Each structure stands twice: as C-alpha cells, then as structure tokens.
Amino acid sequence: MRFARRGTMPVMTSAPQRTVNKRLGREFSMTMFREAAELDRDLLQDEHLTRWLFADALHARGERREMSFYDYVGPHHVRRYMRWIDRFPYRDWFPDQVAPLAAISEQRDRAVLEALGVDPKETLFEPIGRYNAEDYLLQRFYPVPDRMKPRTILDFGAGHGRQANLAFHEGDDVTETMIAIDGIPGSYLTQRAYYAALGLRCADYIEARTRGHDFDVAERSVDHDVIHLPTWRFDLVPDESVDLALLVQVIKELPRRLVVHVLQEFARVVKPGGAVYVRDHLQGHHPNHMPIDQLMMANGFVLEFAPAVQDRVEIHGLPRIWRKLDPALYFEPELT
Fold first, then answer.
1. ∠ Cα 200 216 116 (to 5°)
2. Which residues pair with 277 in a beta bridge?
C-alpha cells in the first residue's frame, strides 16, 4: 500500500482493502503489541509506564466501554475515538481563523474513514475539526524566530492521532516529523491505523521490535513523517531534538510517577528555546492532583502564553505554552 503525503487525500494505489484491514486488524495488531511488550518486559517493571490513571478509573467503573482502552477492535476503533468528544457547541474564540482549517480537517478525516473502509455514520467530524484547528492555531499563535518553529513535534498521549491531521496538511510548510508516544494498547493501535489512513509514512517501534529490527529515531526521521513509540521507549528520543511537545488533555490523567517521568523527559528532549503546549481543564478535572505548573518550572520551563479566555464557555480546555529556557540567550555582563 502506498499513500501520498500531506495535502493529497489518502488513496490506496497497490493493495486491496482486505490486506489493509488484516495489517491493521484486531488480531494481528493486538498480537504484535503483546509480543513487543513481552520482548521489552525488562523495561516494564514500572507499571506506571503502561497505565493511565483516568483511563483505568473509567475502565474499572465500566464507563466509556466504547473506548476499549486496553483492547482494539481494528480500523473501526478510529471511529470510536472520533465519537468520544465533547459535543457542546462552544463559541469559537477566533472563528475567522478556525473555520477554514476545521473544514480541511473534516475533509481529511472523512477520507481517513473511507480509506479504512469504515462507515462515517454518527462521527463527530465538525467538533473534532474545530478542536484540531484550535490546537493547530494556538500552537502557532504568534511569530517566533526561525530556530523556534515547530519542525519536530512530540505528541504525548496522542489519542487517535488527530494532531497529525493539520500538522501535515498542504498549508503547513514547517512540520517535518511528528513523534507520537502512547502506552495504552487501544490508543496506540488506533493511532497506527489513523496515521496509515492519513497517508503518512510511519516508522512504528512495535512493528520493528517484533521483526527484530533496530530502531534509531534520528535515522528513521530522515524518511518518515511519524515516529511511533510506546511510552516505555521514550528513552529513544534523542536529547534536545524536539521543537514543540504537546500535552493535550492528558497530563492531569497520568499516574503521579508518570507525570514526574514525562516532564523530566520533556526537559531532556526539548531543545533550548523549544516549547511545551498544554491544553486541559484548570478546574473540575484533576485525577492525579499533581502541581503541574510548579513541576514545569522545576524542569526548566517558563510560562510564555496563557490567554484570558473562559474554559467550557469560550473554549474547551485552556491552552498554555511553556518555553524551555535557553542559557545561550542569557546576558552576562563583563565584570571590570
């Protein structure tokens, strides 16, 4: 199967649909994930690397069963994730900029489901498109020096992979590579299907591991759009290689030890002068009760952008941008 990159809609050119569904199907995908985890079992002594606090709570209560966090039903799982979004019609904070990008996002998502052979019925394309457009714009809300532009993006807890939709649309001439990291089988395998149907060249650690192949992130970034890693292989991301890291509706839902681990890893992999984009609810949803702002500062990030908008009134989840301090920019006057 071969797909075209960026603006072109995904169209299968060489393989029948049944081959696609087999490769992305439940049995093959779940077996592959389990085999890779077993091969890496020495890295999985710390269970917090493979579990999400909020997802665990929902699973234990029998809620959100349609999400199948620890199972995967095949390509249809992409549609399941697309249906799990707040349906409330929030007022667009900046509609003139959001509307055209939301339309592009919706068009690309419809093509994704078509490529996967999934019925789009009852899929919430419009709110997902608006959510995607807001994130894309807010991550690039004001001009930055060329060295700070988001060429390499790391998406932690990537959901169904939606951040890649507009990052690789034909109107973006900056994004070069996205590194997607997740630890939940249902999410990880859904992302794998979404990236394939979006037409992106994805280097997948799970696939490489089960085939006995080495996995060098820097090397694979040369000819791949997406680098896909499980949480327990965050260590493969090179030091100071990321321009922009994303934490969208995830940091408050992680186990406490994983919060500490993730932010320490962000401090390691984000370039000096690079940024972390956080979007979540400041009130009413905080399962892990961790002091996120203080931990960001302790790891060398300063708050650069936090718009004064009302959560759940003007926008769903409040966005912030944290900038990593760059010692090279410090002014050190000569002592005489």
1. 25
2. 246, 321
Residue 211: DSSP 8-state: T
**CA 205 – CA 228 distance, rounded (Å):** 6
Which DSSP state fits 320? E
**Could you identify the residue written with the tokens 């649909």?**
17
User: Distance (Å, rounded) from C-alpha 334 to C-alpha 226?
Assistant: 45
Measuring CA to CA, which residue among 186, 206, 191 is closest to residue 55?
186
3 state DSSP class of 156: strand
Q: Which letter does DSSP use for residue 65 in this model?
A: G
Q: What does the domain layout of the chain look like in residue ranges?
A: 17-326
Cα distance between residue 128 and residue 83, in whole Å: 9
Helix (H) / strand (E) element for 176: namely none
Name the token pair of 238.
């090179």
Q: Which residues pair with 320 in a beta bridge?
A: 278
**Helices then strands, each counted (H, E), the chain:** 12, 8
Cα–Cα nearest to 107, from 86, 128, 90, 91: 128
On whether the CB atoms of residues 183 and 52 are closer than 8 A, the answer is yes
Please identify which residue in the block is written with the tokens 């965050």. Answer: 234
- Average pLDDT score over residue span 226-253: 96
- Its CATH class, for the domain covering 17-326, is alpha beta
Looking at the DSSP bridge assignments, the partners of residue 156 are 181
CA atoms within 13 A on the CB side of 237: 33
Other C-beta atoms closer than 10 Å to the C-beta of 234 total 21
Task: Summarize pLDDT for 61-102 with one digit per residue, the tens.
Answer: 666 655 667 889 999 999 999 988 877 677 777 889 999 999
| Distance in angstroms (rounded) separating the CA atoms of residues 208 and 130 | 35
How many Å apart are CA 77 and CA 20, to the nearest integer? 14
Burial class (CB in 10 A: 0-12, 13-18, 19+), 225: buried
Predicted pLDDT of residue 85: 81
Q: What is the mean pLDDT of the chain?
A: 88
